[in-house]
Amino acid sequence: MSNRYKRILLKLSGESLMGEKQYGIDEKRVAEYASQIKEIAEMGIEIGIVIGGGNIFRGLSGTTKGVDRVKGDQMGMLATVINSLALSSALEKIGQKARVFTAINMFPIGEHYSKWKAIEAMQQGEVAIISGGTGNPFFTTDTGSALRGIEIEAEVMLKGTRVDGIYTADPEKDPTAVKFEKISYDEIYTRGLKVMDLTATTLCKENHLPIIVFDMDTVGNLKKVLSGENIGTLVY
After folding, report:
1. Domains of the chain, residue spans
2. What CATH number is given for 7-235 in this structure?
3. Residue 128 pairs with which residues in a beta bridge?
């Protein structure tokens, strides 16, 4: 079966790493993710990954607790580095090479990110895990993943979530919510759907990076998406 894409950017939410836990990192969930990622790496697909930090700290919700917004966002960036290290460790444990890049210089925790080093790692069959968001406050990891996806010249951004696509409303709260097979960037904006923040959506639109939103927590789905099976929702 031929692969639909040669190079992808996979965006994982920090919350999903909690698995069954209330906080932090669920080793079982990270191991499941690692084996799914290794499976597609073995198909010859070049993989860049950006992970959120919401399982450890959310900059924006920190501000309501009296944390300065800039410092809160920096704490959130550090949370993404912790998650990236956990995923790289799980990948290496099962024999899949991975390299952690950081948006701000954090040697020797990770390599300082540059587009060329990340592409070189991917071309050598390593998974490039790009942490630290954009390195700037006021930008989410969604925007970070849009930016990195465009920079590393990925053909698609795969946004792995808990739900199996984009709906007219939150399917966990509204039983009448209907799923979209595909939807345009503009329609997401006009309908006010909470898929990604506006900055991220605009970046993807202006640079023609399609997004596929799918359920990453169902083991095997990542391979299905990349084999061209029609799961999730395509944003174009």
Report:
1. 7-235
2. 3.40.1160.10
3. 48, 99
